[in-house]
Amino acid sequence: MDRVLSDKKAIILMVLPALIIFVSVVFIPVIWTFVYSFYSGMPGLKFQFTGFSNYINMWSNEQTMDAIKMNWKYILIVTPGQIGLGLLVSLMMYFSIKKYKTLCRTIVFIPTVLPTVAVAQMFAKMYEMVPNYGLINSLLNLVGLDQWIQPFLGQPNTAFAALCAMDVWTAIGFYTVIIYGALVDIPNELLEAARIDGASGVKLFTKIVLPMIRTIMITCLVFSFTGTIKLYESATALTKGGPGFATTSMTMNMYQNAFLYDEYGYASTVAILILIQCLLVTFLINMLSREKY
Amino acid sequence: MEREASVKKAFSIIGKLLIVIFLFIEIYPIFWIFMSSLKSTQEFNLTASYALPAKLHFDNYVKAWYQGKMNIYFKNSAIVTIVSLFFIILFGTTSAFALTKMRWKLRDKVMKIFLSGIMIPTAVVLIPLYSMYKGANLLNTRLSLILTYIAFGLPLTVFLLRGYLTSLPDDMIEAAIIDGANIYQVFSRIVLPLMKTGIVTVAVIQFYFRWNDLIFSSTFISNTNMKTVQTGLLYFSDMYGNRDWGAIFACISISVLPTLIVYIFLNKMVIEGMTSGAIKG
Amino acid sequence: MKMMHLKKNDSKIASYYKMRKGKIVMKKRFLVLSMVFIILVSMLTGCGSQQSSQTPPAPTGGKTDGVGEFQSRNIKFLSIWPEDDKNANGWLISELSRQYGETVDAFNLEYEYVSIDQLDQKVKILISSDDLPEVCTYESGVRLKQVIEADKILNVDKTFSDLGIRDCLDEGAVSLLKNLVDGLGLYCVPLGMNMEGFWYNKALFAEAGVAKVPETWDEMLDACEKLKAKGIIPIVQGGSDNWPMTRVLNAYVVRSIGLDALQNAVTGKTHFSDPEYVAAAQMFQDMAKKGYFAEGMNTIDPGTATSMLMNGQAAMNYDGSWKSSNLNSEDNTAGPEGIGFFNVPVVNDSSTLRDYSMNCGNILMFSSKKYDEQVGEWMKFVFPMLGDFAIQETGSFKGFRITEMPEDTTYYTQLVADNLANAENAFLWFEAKMDSETSTLAQNLISLLYTGDISAEDYMRALEETAAKSR
User: Fold this and answer.
1) A148 in contact with C at a CB cutoff of 8 Å?
2) Average pLDDT over residues C404-431
3) What pTM was computed for the model?
């Protein structure tokens, strides 16, 4: 038994290719980035060891600080938005409809499968005001709310909101389907028993449903968080980070520093900062769930 | 009692109504894109944007396909995604199996290395990878993307498949070994068929992740003939700006269609995969 | 014994199947999945390869097909203009190259487009990987200077002299270009001999009762007020690209402080945070607040801004003389004399109306590594023709010698020619001397200055802090 299950040749054959690719494309670059973060400039061009100065200068770099603030504001709005609305829709689907459940699930999931850039282009057209009204402005015009007509992507606040709305829109279906899957698995007897005991509405939800779907909610949290903290695709495609730096995320700030300002060293420091935040929050979520991931 | 029933009924009607409204919000923009892609450029100036097209202008699609080079981008995206998907599944299943069911000394350490990858944001590796590929002359090649996608696909794949495999009882494998099966037979005849749902889940998730990638493809690829759908779409809208709305909408529609079609054919499987044991793990 | 085990095994699997019933996907479906994928892939790759074999890689391919035995010389051209836009520089080069392709056996111009906001990054990447294409669009000024210092591009002065075509360049443009790189020499060819200022829609001016074309800034503000009162958008800029907005700011900076205002601030002789500079930013913001700029202007692209001017949706648009090609085209709904031009109005006597914002537009540079005889032949054909070809086709000046003015010079072409002849001194655009970080900042933040989300002080303070880093 052990001889077969600890066949060294097989283990090497099965694990090594994956390990080599993973280590050389992900693991080594992380260490590399860490080393770079103590340098300034660009390799081959004024590349100098500067110790911790990048880490110190970072706090007075307004662009980076703004990006961190923006990114966290985004996480704090979009993550609850995605999961909360996903939960809400899945609950409505679970409790208030009997027929067409599969159809609903299928339709809800559609936005998730669309390419990000296409979605962003679509929303950009929806938000447009000049030269022609996009979908939203022309609908506002139709219902007579002309005072609300505005260049949504031209103002920092509305551009940020527009970005959040888009990313929530895309992901609701994903979380609805996952959470709904967990709801279906709750044993019916449990719900019936609770109902007979007089539990209903909110109580039924907090006492029975929520504990039953706790694990899946934490999984959702991890998914959503890892998605939102690396915000890049959707913001780049919708606003290019503007107006000003109003929708520039941490990753975009890193990108600018590296590929626009030729500051690979400093950009690496920003990257390490992103990594640290990621690890911290994951650690927190793990504590919260008291489960090992 | 009667009152409670009527409250319940009202509740369910409101719920239904909300769901219908919600479904409408999720679907209407997509419908709007397809409608707009059939409009002529003048129509955008003259009619409200929610209006239906007066005549169907299919030449927008012709323009998008040839001038927008969507044909090239599609080919690139398909090759890159499918090849990396194949290897993600191949490497993912074998190593998840070796890491959960086989017995060896460094097993837990290697597992930790893989799992740590889940938390690593793409931004952290971008600069070194760029330098690496530049040094190896791999910029502007599909290989650069395929390698990166495989590496970034593996951690989540191993994690999900591990969750799936641990729920498989060990005695099945043991029974097969007693019957004289070697480790490769155990893997291919017993374990692999039982992992199918897990594999589908992983394939679906990875497909959408890789197909949607923008940050790697826009960093490593600058040659127009190597661009993927995502970078190509950005490029097209930069190039045509507001000059040609119809063509841009057509471009968006074209890029949306294949994923939509795949989904419509496979939606049961996709959704089953999404709600299967792997995610709950 | 063996049988038993097998049975045991089978029943175990069966019970396992039962256990996870509903979660196991049936074999059939798995087959369907793989088949759909395979069909999709083969369809896509099929279409793709068919396509690429039917059409040559670039429409300018000309004679490349069927030559087979000859090694086709492929010249790559990195451009920021859509190839089919007849009003833009890209088409001129591409069309002349097509004509060249008809005279030789194997030649192909590979046209590659990059969006303007990605040009800088892309060129940097190409330089660092030593893969600059034969012909590349770029921007003169500090950025070009860096490329010259990296020793990657041809000295045009020398190359053109060797080829015997040095005299096709306009000397005014040459001296402007040399000045932009602080006298390092001529390492690029111009793609324009441009002056910039305000284009205005004459009908709208008349409608609002603006009789006299503004000569001072106050007169222009006055005109804005009158236009606004009539419900006409006074000024529209293609703000989504940002530079069209910094140009307006630049106009006031130069007119209120002097021709060397930017040069001084960048080198540290003066500071962006000095009150005069802040006052200029304040003027820009005030104009926005008073509604002199189009609403949502930072979401309008330059092409749309031009159409708005021509369609009569907005009265003024600050832009360069390259606009004459749009104005000469059929798209110009304002008609053959409907749009007028005036130089940036003066604020005080630090400069005069004979001082223009002038530049050579985007420039072309040539990789020294990839230069060979065939590239030289191509240059010998294209560049001596460029000046005449551009003036005939688009009525615009490209900084190349013009051997004969077309007889039926349009109003717009003449307008540009007259203004160019009137110019005494030139000043540069806002970012010309800035490093990439300052320039990015200047462009990104102008959008917020426009919306009122940052103050004039903060805008200039941000520029000062960043510029100080590289002094």
Assistant:
1) no
2) 86
3) 0.82
State the smallest CA–CA distance between residue C46 and chain B in angstroms: 9
- CA dist C55 and C68 (Å) reads 15
* DSSP type of residue C294: P
* Shared domain check, C316 and C222: yes
CATH number at residue C302: 3.40.190.10
Give me C447's structure tokens. Answer: 């959008």
- Averaged pLDDT for residues B18-23: 87
Q: Does C322 lie in the same domain as C262?
A: yes
Touching C: B residues 185-224, CB under 8 Å: 190, 194, 196-197, 200, 222-224
Averaged pLDDT, A57-71: 91
Which parts of C22-75 fold into alpha helices (H)? 27-54
Q: Are B170 and B133 in contact (CB under 8 A)?
A: no
Pick the CATH number of A61-292 from 3.40.50.10860, 1.10.3720.10, 2.40.50.100, 3.30.70.1350: 1.10.3720.10
| Average pLDDT over every residue of C418-443 | 87
User: Residue C202: left if φ>0, alpha if ψ -120 to 50, beta else—which one?
Assistant: alpha
Flag whether C97 is in a domain.
yes
Task: Quote the CA–CA distance of C286 and C289 in Å, as a whole number.
Answer: 5
Domain match, C373 and C288 both: no
| pLDDT for the residue numbered B240 | 67
Is residue C134 a part of any domain in this protein? Answer: yes
Chain B CB contacts of C44 under 8 Å are 74-75, 78, 258
Taking the Cβ of residue B182 and every Cβ of chain A, the question of whether any pair is shorter than 8 Å is answered with: yes
Residues B165, B100 contacting (CB under 8 angstroms): yes
> Is some CB atom of chain C closer than 8 A to the CB atom of A286?
no
Helix or strand or coil: residue A255? helix
CA atoms of B240 and B68, how far apart (whole Å): 9
What does the pLDDT read at residue C160?
Answer: 93
- Measured CA to CA, the distance from residue B157 to residue B201 in angstroms comes to 9
Which residues are bridge partners to C216 per DSSP? C346
pLDDT score at C95: 92
Confidence of residue A83 (pLDDT cuts 50, 70, 90): very high
Condensed to tens digits (0 to 9), the pLDDT of residues C156-194 reads 999 999 999 999 998 888 888 888 888 889 999 999 888
Report ipTM (2 d.p.): 0.82
* Residue C296 and residue C431 share a domain: yes
pLDDT at C227 over 70: yes
Overall number of domains in chain C: 2
**Residue C328, Cβ neighbours under 10 Å: how many?**
19
Question: With 50 as the cut, is the pLDDT of residue C27 above it?
Answer: no
Domain identity same for C369 and C230: no
Domain assignment present for residue C416? The answer is no
Does C14 reside within a domain?
no
* Residue B241, pLDDT score: 58
